[in-house]
Amino acid sequence: MATRIGILGLGKMGEALIKGLQASKHSKDFAFQATTRSIESAAEATKRLAVECHTDNQKLAAGSKVLVLCVKPHQAQTVLSELASKLTADHLIISVCASVTTAQISEWSGGRAAVVRAMPNTPCLIGEGMTVFCAGQGVKAEHMRLTENIFNTVGRAIALEEPLMDGVTGLSGCGPAYIYLIIEALSEAGVKVGLPRKTATLLAAQTMAGAARMVLERGEHPAALKDEVTTPAGCTIDGLMALEEGKLRVTLIKAVLAAAKRSKSLGKK
Ligand SMILES: NC(=O)c1ccc[n+]([C@@H]2O[C@H](COP(=O)([O-])OP(=O)(O)OC[C@H]3O[C@@H](n4cnc5c(N)ncnc54)[C@H](OP(=O)(O)O)[C@@H]3O)[C@@H](O)[C@H]2O)c1
Question: Which residue has a Cα nearest atom 43 of ligand 1?
Fold first, then answer.
């Protein structure tokens, strides 16, 4: 029987998840219902995604034992408090809200439902997401298996301890934005050396995807793969020198640290 999943807050992340699951070869294993805040966005989402979408969170909880909380972090407390009386020990709440801890989710939702915190990213939309999840209150092995199954269907999923979740947010949660920026910059470089923009973007994006697959599939250290491309006195070493001069590595490290710090501070508010 299909797992009924209720998406609380069908925005960008909720949509990426639904579309990714719908497009997967396991699409028949899942059935969806969703909510938004406004009637207009619910009607629009129903039409666009062929999913029942409305504004009644309590009806959603009555119809789905698995609830994925996809509202903005500052909206989580209100949504869960309104739902608390309807939640039972049979419910599993999977929160994808950045910065919100499992303890907060349990407190706001009345403490009966099992709670998992997850940090996916938007490439879930095309089955290439990266999700990290951790157990909260009341979670059993079957809840962790179900969470892993959902997010593995739309990419890769691993379980880690909760104290690492802010760092995860700074790396893989926010990471697609960093990578888009790098692709955009490489594409500009292509235009500068005379390539048509569309071609430059293709070259940049496929190079990024190919290099990422090499790391994932060969399992070698990225530095060893970089060395393979770098011929003595060749062209690549000159490019690498320019990147070192521009402090690319430390800049990327600082980007992840800044986003992780922000995630941690938002959680304390
Ligand atoms: N976007 C990402 O790349 C990403 C990655 C990882 C995790 N996340 C997490 O995912 C969550 C959602 O982010 P997002 O980018 O998808 O935000 P978003 O596009 O703004 O979506 C938020 C959704 O929540 C709905 N909503 C607000 N209040 C509600 C209520 N009381 N009842 C039901 N629905 C309600 C909104 O409905 P209306 O449209 O009607 O206002 C909207 O559909 C955040 O907590 C974020 O930290 C996002």
Answer: 11
Domains of the chain: 3-165 (3.40.50.720), 175-268 (1.10.3730.10)
Quick check: CB of 49 below 6 Å from ligand 1? Answer: no
| Phi-psi group of 248: left, alpha or beta (phi > 0 → left; psi -120 to 50 → alpha; rest → beta) | alpha
Contacts of 256 (CB under 8 A, 6+ apart): 167, 170, 171, 174, 175
Kindly tell me the burial class for residue 176, based on how many C-beta atoms sit within 10 Å of its own C-beta (0-12, 13-18, 19 or more): middle
- Ligand 1 near 73 CB (within 6 A): yes
Best residue among 8, 10, 13, 15 to mutate for probing ligand 1's pocket (most ligand atoms within 8 Å of CB) is 13
What is the structure's pLDDT at 262? 96
Return the pLDDT at 197: 98
Stretch 37-45: mean pLDDT = 96
